[in-house]
Write a structure and sequence with these properties.
disordered N terminus, Heat Shock Protein 90, single chain, alpha+beta, elongated
Length: 470
Amino acid sequence: MNNSSMIDLPGTFWDRSSSRLRLQTSVRLRWFAVFGQLVTVGITHLAFGFKLPLGLCLAAIAFSAWVNIFLRILLPITYRLGNRLATGLLAYDLIQLAALLYLTGGIENPFVFLLVAPVTVSASTQPIGSTIALGLLAAATTIFLIFWHLPLPWHDSAPFALPSLFKIGIAASIIAGMAFLAFYAWRLSRETLQMSEALAATESVLAREQRLHALDGLAAAAAHELGTPLATITVVAKEMGRAIPKDSPLADDLILLQTQAIRCREILQKLTKSPGDQDPLHAQLTVTQLIEEASAPYRDLKARIRIDSRPSDGAPPDAHVEPFGQRHPGVIYGIGNLIENAIDFANGSVDVMGRWSANEIAIVIRDDGPGFATDVMDSLGDPYITTRSSRSRSAKEDGASAGLGLGFFIAKTLLERSGARLVLENRHPPETGAIVTVTWLRTIFERSPDENMWRLRKGPMSQLLPTNST
């Protein structure tokens, strides 16, 4: 692995957008289909004694099993499929089922209605364009099976044959059912997603309201408590200014006292009017500043932190300017937690590298420790999954909450909510250690949180949100 270049996430090769279909779900559904197809073929051939091209049927089923094995080796089980890859897998499932139906009677096979399954799954998890493409493929496959297929396995004494008009009716019912189920699943999935987005936006707005309300009360209390002494100081300073000569050495001190009192009053007024506003000078930070701020609390720990931040190799000249992102406490905490974990397991040093190109920004955290255990790597990021030993857990000061994996879970959740994607891997031998890569699309990293909130509030469910969020 070349750490001096931009780290490419597994899904980027297929598509930069993610679907709502996880690899684990796709693999499990395919295993269920493989098992069901094996049972059906076995019962048809062994129990009923019907003749069918057994070798070809078993080959088609075995190919699906090998697809599952290949995917399981290539990608982690918790990986969320990109739209193109998910659509391709669903298209394969459709074609594989059509091949089995072709070998076993085509449109006359009673299991032909299963052609609607991939289209329904796509309607629930994929964009509308992918679903339409799969629907057209399924419709074309259904029509093909009307006219071209091997005979249905049946008794030799009484060959089974349906009238052509009846076959066309079956195909029409399949296409109609496919359209209905796909539209219903798509509509239900869309409404669920809109409701989830609205609830997430409402939660964020309510949290901001609560925070601002607390600051408003604190600012009002401070203004009330400090207003009277500041006014007294101002009045006394003015009276003293009138009482002493203008050429007195105390005159400048009195003027300074008055100006500072006025400044304190202006600060209180500003805090009272807009307690939630950030200082414009500190509202944004570069990738390097983000890494420096996240790693600052851990500089004095056992491992040495080395920071290397620069453009990716091969990045165009117009992308060499270091990008600015909004100061997000959750992102700073998440990166800091990953650095702390790396220090806990490092033998001597931790490398934190920032890379950016025209399209992506990556922060790579690499240590020289033992690396991730292979039996927990796929589950890291879930609560209560940890790589710490019981001995290291007991050494923590926070007792029962130490070493339970909650810190990594929280950090991963905060980073993913900012639009980042995480990849965990081990260094290649002879080097040892773990590598954690956090990647954002540059457009997402540079987008302000208020813009994300605006996009949610403009959705169809925006009526659930408060009309005033300030």
